[in-house]
Amino acid sequence: MSSILTIADLKDLARRRVPKMFFDYADSGAWTESTYRANEEDFQKIKFRQRVLVDMSNRSLESTMIGEKVAMPVALAPTGLTGMQHADGEMLAAQAAEEFGVPFTLSTMSICSIEDVASVTKKPFWFQLYVLRDKDFVLSLIDRAKAAKCSALVLTLDLQILGQRHKDVRNGLSAPPKMTLANIADIAMRPRWWMGMAGTKRRTFRNIVGHAKGVGDVASLGSWTTEQFDPQLSWKDVAWIKERWGGKLILKGILDKEDALMAAKTGADAIVVSNHGGRQLDGASSSIGVLEEIADAVGDQIEVHMDGGIRSGQDVLKALCLGAKGTYIGRPFLYGLGAMGKEGVTMALEIIRKEMDITLALCGKRLVTDMGKDQLRR
Ligand SMILES: Cc1cc2nc3c(=O)[nH]c(=O)nc-3n(C[C@H](O)[C@H](O)[C@H](O)COP(=O)(O)O)c2cc1C
């Protein structure tokens, strides 16, 4: 579709095609959404240096993240309820990422299970773990990710309790949606969405339902997380999780230099500088705002990744210039998925790739791995 040129175009289309409850779930931040907005806005303040008359031929966006080759250093972030943006959403997004050559991260709170995604992909994907009170269940999740040959465990540190997103409360977010009159009216206007949903059996949290003890139904994310997420999670837990997992470990949700220094001591392979897309601590700094300080402090000890607010290939390059070795996108791929399924995820990645490539050239560079602080105007 030639009318889709930007991530914002995909967002507009997703808004029309995805039921309000799930579109809002993606397009929301905690409380006043100030951190959600800052994540995007702070990228705009960073300026490139334009360079001319340098050889721009043979450009490459290839890089590595935790030692894995990537077509560009942009992974798909773990996002809950992705299978509610589009039927079988996690399976489709994982396939799109695999074909494109970037990592896909499956959330603990996904609709499609670890096994569902493994059944439709050939290359290893990454699994994101939330630590729950039920440690037997946590161990079984780790073991299932191992059995599915996931090549990295992404341990999320910034959601021991759930930040409040007003839209979710007002919309009565649940998966599947409750059949109230308002929901029926809203869903009726989105035929692509409900026809897809009618054709799949994957409509609830399949990593959990039927796997966690005594859990036959997890409709409400809010109440389940309140009961199940472990508020006592500590740095000591990172050690046993690392030990049990035995593979590459990424610690996600670091926004403070002190925490980054602690994370570097755990022996993990990477940290993700992240505020959960502005969905947890409203009033916290934007991710891009703290990236440089954190990368300067620990970049020689641990690989630094970042996410939050990336809406273009230019944003990716800015993050790389400020010290990130890799980045993740959450909403950009969700909008693509909601708009056009797998094709939309590929389109989101293509848009970002093209923007990166042209920007790289106009900055006078041929290799994405050469982007550094000296490419920024300060
Ligand atoms: C709808 C949605 C659901 C999310 N669910 C999870 C999750 O289950 N686990 C997790 O670690 N992070 C989750 N996140 C945070 C993302 O992994 C990532 O940090 C964030 O989306 C990055 O910001 P961006 O959306 O601006 O790219 C979620 C984000 C969104 C938008």
From TrEMBL:
Look up the record and name the cofactor or cofactors this protein needs.
FMN
Which SUPFAM superfamilies does the record match to this protein?
A: FMN-linked oxidoreductases (SSF51395)
The residues covered by the FMN hydroxy acid dehydrogenase domain are 1-378
Which PROSITE patterns does the annotation name? Answer: FMN_HYDROXY_ACID_DH_1, FMN_HYDROXY_ACID_DH_2
Q: Which residues bind glyoxylate?
A: 25, 165, 276, 279
Q: Which InterPro entries match?
A: Aldolase_TIM (IPR013785), Alpha-hydoxy_acid_DH_FMN (IPR012133), FMN-dep_DH (IPR000262), FMN_HAD (IPR037396), FMN_hydac_DH_AS (IPR008259)
Q: Which Pfam families does the UniProt entry name for this protein?
A: FMN_dh
Look up the domain of life of the source: Bacteria
Which NCBIfam families does the protein's record reference? PRK11197.1
Recorded protein name is Alpha-hydroxy-acid oxidizing protein
Organism of derivation:
Mesorhizobium waimense
